[in-house]
Amino acid sequence: MVSPSSVDDLEAERLARLTLSLVFEPGDPRAAKLCAEVGARELVDRLRSDRAAADIKTDAGTRLPYVQPERDLERAAVMGLRFVIPDDPEWPAWLDGLAAAPPLAERGGVPLGLWVRGRRRLDEVGRALAIVGSRAATTYGTDTAARIAGTVAQGGWSVISGGAYGVDQAAHRGSMGVGGTTVAVMAHGLDRTYPAGHVDLVDAIAERGLVVSELAPGSAPTRIRFLARNRLIAAFAQGSVVVEAKVRSGALNTANWTGRLHRPVMGVPGPVTSAFSAGVHALLRTGAATLVTSGEEVLEVVGRVGEHMLAEPRAPERARDRLTVRLQQVLDAVPIGRPTSTDGVARTAGIGIVEARRGLDKLEQHGLVSSADGGWRLTDAALTH
Amino acid sequence: MVSPSSVDDLEAERLARLTLSLVFEPGDPRAAKLCAEVGARELVDRLRSDRAAADIKTDAGTRLPYVQPERDLERAAVMGLRFVIPDDPEWPAWLDGLAAAPPLAERGGVPLGLWVRGRRRLDEVGRALAIVGSRAATTYGTDTAARIAGTVAQGGWSVISGGAYGVDQAAHRGSMGVGGTTVAVMAHGLDRTYPAGHVDLVDAIAERGLVVSELAPGSAPTRIRFLARNRLIAAFAQGSVVVEAKVRSGALNTANWTGRLHRPVMGVPGPVTSAFSAGVHALLRTGAATLVTSGEEVLEVVGRVGEHMLAEPRAPERARDRLTVRLQQVLDAVPIGRPTSTDGVARTAGIGIVEARRGLDKLEQHGLVSSADGGWRLTDAALTH
Q1: Residue B141's closest chain A neighbor by CA?
Q2: B347 touching A, CB under 8 A?
Q3: What is the ipTM of this complex?
């Protein structure tokens, strides 16, 4: 990559990268690779002067005569959109991890640039988690996504998702509900909103966080654009949480990208009777994902060592639980009904009378037995615990 | 262990082992170890003649004067119960795995003998799976336990459980419902039934399978007897499935025993909002258990290689899924509305016109586009898939 020595250089680089992003489908690994090898401006020159390899030249030739990057930038600025490139100070370094990840479904590579809507800088996103899942999620899925998003947001983590119905929407809302930063990565141009019903949600995200896309204004979403987009959701985050996913779900593609970036994939289990959890269960079964049940557990997986110390879930400790097995054996030998002699307790417990007596004395100190009425009996405390 | 050379020897061994099992609490690892080292009859002699180590002699001394093994055997025979020992031909070899497993909660070791109710031989149990979980299970838990039990039973596997309410009961019933063999391992004497409401269930199990206990008739269940019993549930099975369990649940003790026997532990996930799945999720999170969602998956985990081949869950394949990414790219470029020229498709797809035309021809063969009315359009098949 050629480092720009002036503002003019930076803007020339921006126009070249925008040109390439208008010519190639997002996530075309050939474009990213050539751009990294020879630089964006040289690649545009080669394509224009017929010096590029046959396959890429043929593909680029169909769109190259029609692109108008300057006009696109002007129009986008009016809509509050900017096109950010790797040479810009706000470019987040962690996206460059995509350069080393092998392609998936023929998509891959560092994006040529990113269209951004929102006042915050891209690198302000900081530590972030992707929370993804079904559009047609159940209320279990959306409730769980919102709860996890709220917890990680309170822990200072941004939440990345795809701005869709279902889990995506719940994740964005869960983050914003506690004042967190959230980023929606879209598979279409930011001059429009899909689904149309999400205009208010996307406006709110742009207000407090960021809306991002590889695609220029005017671009419609397609299947391969969703596949390309998923790698960006994964790359923006230090780990991904799949909340609900059927066995064929785009969320699993995002999880796959997270694995390719060597970042942790997490999955939220659900009822085995729910088709919306079947895709997550498959991830967990193969070991591709770690099971998480709460935002605290998510932070434990991605957090720095010791930063998010998590106590394993425990039931409240009962007096009985503090007893040794031998003392338990003595306690079990004290009948519920009529009082019994020390000898009777020893025989029932199957231990010597001296140890039995010592045990009964200790149990009396714990308030679990009493020796009134000429024999040993369980106390109310022992019976209710 | 002394191998008996005659029927008299076998019966002397049986009486000695019964004596020891009446003197020591079940799963006392000292008794199992000494019995394996010096033989049951020699150990009884040593306890009777004061030649045993002080700790074990003191414990044994409280009960030894009162035991009446011959009388117990006679009375039990009337009730249809037999006391089976390792020298009996029906002793299942796989219980001996307990000899090498380290104690847990001070319980452990091969049982001295087993009380059995039922007409089948102990070793007829054959390949078996333990299915365990909460007594107070939800309907999700009991439905899932019954379904998994039914599937593994149809696969020829016996189902082992503890005869309790909830998951245990559902597992036994699920097995019997498809004509499977099931074994209930109890923590009390087989002259009685806990819970009392399970008389019919336990009768049915004894009729078609087996009811088993380490404890002599007349013995009540206690906490440490449940802990000792759990190791037998694990030892009878080639693997354990935990269906629902709170974070402090006896089912987790059974899972722990299964791990100590180096046999697979499996866990059924559930909603993260259910306390009854929290114990299972903890097992899955630590990697102590493998996630399973069906009986087929259970069989895949425990089955011999290739015996239970399991196809990963898949959604039905659609015509689009068979397309290459490049063909998909062409298909995505064909608009839903008015027909478009090949040149238009090529420009929208961002690929050369020659390849675009070749792609459109292939898509027409697949029935996804048609070239009527002077241009390309999507077919109904493409729109509905």
Answers
A1: A271
A2: yes
A3: 0.81
